[in-house]
Amino acid sequence: MNTNKAIMCGIAFMVGIVLTQFFSVQISWFYLGLFIPLFILFYKEKGIIIVLILFCITFGYVRFMYSIPVVNENNISYYNNPSKMEWADMKDIQWQGIVVSEPDRRIDHTKLTVEAEKVYESIDISGLVLIKSSLYPEYSLGDRLDVNCKLVTPDKIEAFAYDDYLSRYNIYSLCYSPQIELVEVTDKFFIRKNILEFKDRVHNIIQSNIVEPESSVLSAMLLARKRSIPVDIVDNFSRAGVSHLLAISGMHVAIISMLIVKFLSSFYLPKKITYSGTLILLFLYILMIGFPASAIRAGMMGSVVLLADYFGRVNKSYFALLLVAVCTLLFNPKLIVFDLGWQLSFLAVLSLILFSGDMEKLFIKLPKLFGIKAILQTTFAAQILTLPWLMYKFSQMSLIFPIANILLLPVLPCLMCLAIISICLSFFIPNLTSPLFWIIYGLLNKQIDIVNYLGSLSLAAISVPNISFMVIVFIYTSIFFIKFRLSYVKKQ
């Protein structure tokens, strides 16, 4: 199978997953077997590509259907109280499980993701539960807990599809007002637990050396912890069009990776060293923050951008991107439907692959001073495909994102490198790192001031009327038609 056929099959698989949101027909794995005689019949024929595409669409559809758990007495969600039931009428459930992810500590509570093991002390079960517990006592990854609480099925919260949001993590049960007893501390996640403990130490170093809200902003940039950032600051980042600075997303990693490449290239290092060094730094960074799923996906997407830029072959770049996308969707097909971070990561990387060359030509006359040219190229290239989707999801469009990115992005690689160096030195010579943290604080303080000023402008962002999905489909179809039409004309 050549690259183009593989790309078509990858797209067909993704289309099959998306079609599950428009049709409710139940299809089992058995139907995939019906394609065997078609493969035999059309082997070495031109019609085989049609059979392959239909097979991949069906496979994507079936894969999503089988990602939804069967609710029976061996699944924890079987014991849920209906979400619309009166609280006083709900019954408590006694069950046991083990903490399987990093505790999410908020200002006034902690959220624990727990893999259920037993209910009523005797029935073996499976399934994830999201527990809303008090801040103390603290629990850690690998702790086995005995829990008594009211289990509730997630539901929509006003316009927010909270049930779909949690389903991407395979969570179908919520636990409120829990009575928790620690049964034992296991070593089931020994390596991950040590990495997370290191991440906590890094977070504590940041908190000890930098005051709020600058410390929370740095923790978001480095460690994907942005829960404690004041809401008004988060809103201003969004209105200024620089929310990607606060998220470990594919867009974030792709832009940062490209800026690191441009920075290293300015020292006239060999191409192999520049790109290999960037990939190594990317891996070490994801390792430092504890290998969260979002960062792993972001790292994979960012790596595709680097490889695309290194080899400069568009077809191979498409193939690499689709390979990463298909691999993540085979593992969790809900990402393409319910995970906005995955959607934006994919669109940003595809946009960079498609339009980076066009942006280089558009800004060819701009000077390379302070990396402004590289920032404009990567930012505008990434926005072409992400902006329509953001408008569709949030009914808002930032008008000043070019200015905000020009002012903030040049400092970001330097800021992150300086922060990582300072944190590493703090483990060995903590008393000598204060001057470095003062510099970091000053840079963060100025960045927040710029964001707050830009975000407060009346025309920083405008509201966009609710756009239908079909309009978005038309916009993307037009973008791709214009892009490939122009490419075809140039070849003639």
How would you describe this protein?
With 492 residues, this protein is an alpha+beta fold. Helix content is 56%, strand content 12%. The chain has 3 domains: 3-65, no CATH class; 76-187, Nucleic acid-binding proteins (OB fold (Dihydrolipoamide Acetyltransferase, E2P), Beta Barrel); 200-491, no CATH class. The protein contains 18 helices and 9 strands. It has a 5-stranded mixed barrel. The protein has a two-stranded antiparallel sheet with strand order 8-9. It starts with a helix and ends with a helix.
The rounded Rg comes to: 24 Å
Largest sheet: 5 strands, mixed, barrel
Helix-and-strand structural type: alpha+beta
For the record, the count of structural domains works out to 3
Contiguous uncertain segments of 5+ residues: none
The dominant shape is globular
Helical percent range? Answer: 55-70%
| Order of strands across the main sheet | 1-3-5-7-6
Strand content: 5-15%
CA distance, first residue to last residue? 27 Å
Please trace the helix and strand order, writing H or E for each element. Answer: HHHEEEEEEHEHHHHHHHHHHEHHHEH
Number of helices: 18
The total count of strands amounts to 9
Mean pLDDT: 82
Question: Can you give keywords for this protein?
Answer:
492 residues, alpha+beta, OB fold (Dihydrolipoamide Acetyltransferase, E2P), 9 strands, two-stranded antiparallel ribbon, five-stranded mixed barrel, globular, 18 helices
